[in-house]
Structures are given as structure tokens and as C-alpha cells.
Amino acid sequence: MRRITAAVAAGLMTFAGLVAAGAPAQAATPTAEYVALGDSYASGVGAGSYDPASGDCKRSTKNYPHLWAAANPEYTLKDVTCSGATIADVRAEQLSALSASTNLVTLTVGGNDTQFSTVVRTCLTDTESACALATGWMSAVARNQLVGELSGLYKDIKARSPKALILVFGYPQTLSTTGVCSPIELSAKKRADMNGLADALAEGTAKAAVDAGVHFVDMRKQFTGHGACGTDPWVHGVNTSDTTATFHPNAAGHEKGYAAKFISTWG
Q1: Which of 34, 38, 186, 238 has its CA at 20 to 30 Å from residue 66's CA atom?
Q2: pTM of the entire structure?
Q3: Per annotation, catalytic residue among 66, 226, 236, 248
């Protein structure tokens, strides 16, 4: 298990000093800062339990940043994630939460830059060929144009928080290859094309992470067998009561998918 303590050694030495001096552990104050950045997959759209103060950003108390912070009380969480955020939005509206004292940063972004919602709508309502065209076009963007844009963002984060451990969480494949999708059925071809876009996003994001010297966390294997329309979905299918949740992780997706991967790998 890779631990993140090296990234926050100074803060944890302070914490250790308090314990050694006889201060009760439960009374200890947080000694490290965690800033969560990103779009709806980070804010927890689909997980429910939204903070009313977050408004249209729909930050859930069940999102993976909150779940990890609850398991690591030595960290103070600043959650500035926001539904609908693009790379430009993160740079313009979220990076101000960072500082030189930030110890940990997580980020999920890029889906909206490949027009995720438009592609989903096309695949749900149009032909197989239209879905293939939309996913193919955006997959090319993810593997090419997006790489430089993401790399630039990661470097900006490093410049603002030079001592922070930066973890970039990717997107899972959203659809099970088997099972019934309701109320709108998706053919095997459409499912494969939509999952192909997730693959392209993962490949482009991983390439950008290597270029910028940050850590990419690939979520595709973690969600294997738990896509929408399957028997144990961690991703919403077509959600008619909350359309924004469609093809977003549900509460189990954040707990058993993102947070479990986060905690098991990084502490």
C-alpha cells in the first residue's frame, strides 16, 4: 500500500509531537490540508445528500473526497468541486482554494471538455452511427487536444501547491456490456462506443499526468462488473427523476469505487 505520509511529513510530525506530549488523540486538531477539485464525478452528482450551500455545484457529503476525509481526520477538507466544471472552470473558479500549505489535492475533470452530456444524449436518442460518430470524435479530442490542456492545469496546481501530493482520478466505463437498460435500451454497439470514450479519456489523462509529474488513478478496473444496466450497478442508468445523475456514480460508486480505491491505495 502506498501511503501519503511522505507528502505531509512536517504536519504529521507536529501531530506526533502533540500525542507524545500527552494530548488526547480525539482532541487533536487537523494538521494537514486536502483540497478537492473537479466536476460532477468529483462533486458526487448521483450520490445524493447534497450540501444545500453548494447550490448547482451539487456537492455531496457522500462524494469520494468527503469519504476519504472522514477516514483521515488529520486532514481539513476544502471541497470546491462543481457539477459541470470544465478545465477552464477549474482554473478560473477552483484553483484559488489552493495554497503553499496544501498537502493533498484530488481532481477529476475533462469529461465536460469532451461534451459528455451531448454525447450521452446522442447515444440515447439517435442511431448507432450517430453515436459512433460522436464518441469517435470526442475520443480523438481526449487522446490529443485534451492532453496538453490537462497537463497545463496539473502544472498550475503544482505551482500553487508545490509540496502537495496530486492525485488525478479518472472516469470509469459507465456501461455494463450485459443487462437491460431502462427506459431506453442501448445496443451492444452503443455501449461499446460509450465505453470507448471512457478509455480514451483514461489514456489522455494518464498521458497528461505523466507529462506533468502527477499521479493518475485509473478507475476502470475498480468499476468492472458494476456499470449501469448491470446486476450490481455503481453507476446510474437513465435516471428520469434526476436526469443530471444519468451515467454518474451512485452512492455505492463513490463508496465502493472511488473512496475504496483512494483509501486502499493512499491511506
Answers
A1: 238
A2: 0.89
A3: 248
